[in-house]
Amino acid sequence: MDYILSLLEIERGDGDQWYAKCPAHADNKASLSVTRRDDNRGKSRVYLDCKAGCEFGKIIYELEVSTRQMFEPIDPEKKAAPSRAQRTERSAKPEKKRAASRGKEIARYVYHGPKGEYRYAQIRFEPKDFRTEPSGVPDGDRVPYRLPQLLKGIAEGCRVWIVEGEKDVHALEALGEVATCNSGGGDNWRSRYGYGRWFKDAREIHVVRDRDETGTKFVNAVTADLLQAGVPSDRIRAWQSRTEQDHHDVSDHLGAGWTLDPSKKNPDTTGLVPFDWDAAAQQERDQRIAGRVAELRDEEEARARHQTQLAASMVPPTAVPKRRTELVRRSHEYLIKKCIPKRGTGELFGASGSYKTFVLIDAMMHIAGGLEDWHGFRVRRGRVLYIAAEGGGGFRTRMDVWLYEHGWFAPDKAAELKALDDHVLIVDEPFPILAAHELVQRLPEGWTPDLIVYDTRSNVTAGLEENSSTDMKQVSEAMRRLSAEQDATVMTVHHTGTSEEAADRGRGSQVIKDLGDFALQAEGDQDEGLRSTVFVRKFKEGERHEFGVRLVPVHLHDEDGPLFDDDGDPVTSLAVTDEQVEPGAEPKVRMRQQRQQVTQRSADEMKEQREATNAELAYRLQRFAEENPGVGTNAAAEHFALSARRTQTVRDLAVEEGLIKIENGPNNAKKMYAL
Fold first, then answer.
1. pLDDT at 314
2. Are the C-beta atoms of 460 and 420 separated by less than 8 Å?
3. CA distance 422 to 408
4. Which residue intervals of 424-468 are DSSP H helices?
5. Do the Cβ atoms of 339 and 539 come closer than 8 Å?
6. 88, 289, 461, 552: which has the highest count of C-beta atoms within 10 A?
7. What is the largest CA-CA distance in the chain?
8. Angle at 503 between CA 497 and CA 508, to 5 degrees
9. Of 171-185, 241-255, 303-317, 396-410, minimum mean pLDDT range
């Protein structure tokens, strides 16, 4: 810490917190924070933080120190950092080095208060550098340069010039003008310093910018501060040098032989040039747009690098070029023939109420239990890893109900039941699909899955957008990588869309289906006694087909009899049976038929209303008003599908018969109430 401090130009601070001028940029206001903190490994570290945004590496480069020198062992007996006097005495040689680095003092600009009292000084060195003495001037003590002369000139009605440096002030004073500036350069005019309050009574204020970006910021800051202080806008004018070289100021303008005011003979070629606010604003917009374009380009390059790295991380280790004779024929390998292959990716989707989870449990139990036939399709035994991200709490009941319905709890089935349990593992909490590597590490040693199921996809892809093909492609790649690494089938359970158009596909992006090897859809049909139709929408090595399954409600039993929950209600669920049933209609066809039925039912009701007598309608209107007190005539007309004239006739008849009464509501609207 002491060595680092000895290399810096310290302005203020004590103990473990110091402020110094940053060596990485032309610093006039001690913007570098130097802090020492202890860690839990017996060392202290020096932190360098430049408020102007200089990078840490650039700072230590300028100091000619290494990162290792930022650390030092903690001395238990060490007190606070030495005071400035102690450091000066102990580090005389580095102090001389710093003094020499400032260069030669060539000017001292003294700032006075309104009564001529000394406030502070701005010292200029050669090579060009500045320092405020004393350092750390409070905001409230800062004043414009030559303040007493400024106030005198304003009182006498003189015009006032605000420029960017003390050298320019003296150049203007040599011409008999009243001029001022702020300390620290054009980018240090701050409204919190209260400069604007000294110009309230000035009748004419001229702000002159240097020809650079800082000059534009200076004009904007000064003008905003003056307006905030109450100076009328018609008293403020902005100018710039007639010389067009970068960084030229009013001193360069005058040194080139130009005048402050245009001459009468050549008004367009003499004097200062008016500051073009529109051009400056356009330039600022262009710079902002260029900066944003650069940011977007950097973001795009970073995104491309990330995608490249992500793609590289997803390449399976077995993905190497092979000869034809080295390839393995795998067309015959399956878990459920023509439905679920032995390896690859896919999905099972369906609407709410389609019984897709019950269909999935039925398929899983056939695979894990080694049953030979699943609704007419051959089955090969395998291990199943099921991530029950939706409804994990009730999954045990659903599995037990299936086992009970299919006779697996019989005493003579104990060995087979144990073998089935050994072939199924369940994760009863959401587990992100992109964290598949972590999931594999948590599997029991020696246990490798043949089928991995994520139920549902939306619960294991939190933070990803299901309508984004980019996000879903990332999910698909993760599934394919997991499939290749485990030599298993990976599938998700998903929901369908709600519209008729989306009734036969999963909700959102279709990337997972398009890039996958199979896709199944379950469609429920309660009208046919708890039936679900399974549609094989995609199977790479087989044709599309469908088949129906029957579900039955089951009251779960154990060896002691029927089971009941804590409230005394029976423990029940649904189970898919082995009964062969005819498949139902396509989802789109079913939705169209349902819509037509609703339309026909509405048409029949409207026809009945039209054919009813006025007396019948009057009693119906009474019941309608009883259910909807204060209902209006228009609402009744819409409900009964009647014209406005006939509705009024029925209403008047109901009033005459004493069935309803009419009261006037807001805007004389007729409100009906049943009697």
1. 67
2. no
3. 14
4. 436-441, 457-460
5. yes
6. 461
7. 120
8. 35
9. 303-317
CB atoms within 10 A of CB 218: 26
Contact partners, residue 331, CB within 8 Å, separation at least 6 = 541
CA dist 523 and 503 (Å) reads 10
Higher model confidence: residue 407 or residue 77? 407
Work out whether strand 451-455 and strand 205-209 pair parallel, antiparallel, or are unpaired: unpaired
Residues 6+ apart with CB under 8 A from 409: 403, 417, 557, 558, 559
**Is the pTM of the predicted complex or chain greater than 0.85?**
no
- Tell me, what DSSP letter sits at residue 5? H
Q: Please, which residues have CB within 8 angstroms of residue 173's CB and are 6 or more apart in sequence?
A: 146, 149, 179
State the Cα–Cα distance between residues 256 and 597, nearest whole angstrom: 92
Q: Which two tokens stand for residue 488?
A: 């298993």
Q: Which residue has the higher pLDDT, 243 or 91?
A: 243
Measured between alpha carbons, how far is 196 from 649 in angstroms, rounded to an integer? Answer: 78
Residue whose C-alpha is closest to residue 335's, from 308, 363, 295: 363
Element (H, E) at 646: helix 644-656
DSSP 506: B
The secondary structure of residue 418, as a DSSP letter, is H
In three-state form (DSSP H/G/I as H, E/B as E, the rest C), the secondary structure along 60-94 is HHHHCCCHHHHEEECCCCCCCCCCHHHHHHHCHHH
Report CA Rg, the chain: 42
In degrees and rounded to multiples of 5, residue 225 shows phi and psi of: -65, -40
State both tokens at 500.
Answer: 């008729």
C-alpha dist (Å) from residue 275 to 160, 237, 241, 535:
17, 8, 9, 74
Residue 331: per-residue pLDDT: 57
Q: Kind of pairing, strands 205-209 and 236-240?
A: parallel
pLDDT recorded at residue 84: 45
CA angle, 161 as apex, 159 and 162 as ends, to 5°?
145
Place of tokens 């919190």: 192
Element (DSSP H or E) covering residue 647: helix 644-656
Contacts of 15 (CB under 8 A, 6+ apart): 80, 81
Question: How far is it, in rounded angstroms, from Cα 632 to Cα 666?
Answer: 11
Say how far apart CA 393 and CA 182 lie, in whole Å.
71
Specify the 3-state DSSP secondary structure of 313.
helix
Which residues contact residue 389 at a Cβ distance below 8 angstroms, ignoring those fewer than 6 apart? Answer: 427, 429, 430, 431, 454, 455, 456, 459, 460
**Can you spell out the DSSP letters for 522-586?**
EEEEGGGSSEEEEEEEEETTS--EEEEEEEEEEE-EETTEE-B-TTS-B-EEEEEEEEEE-----
- Please give the mean pLDDT across all residues of the chain: 84
- Mean of pLDDT values over 595-605: 63
Residue 398 — pLDDT band, cuts 50, 70, 90?
Answer: very high
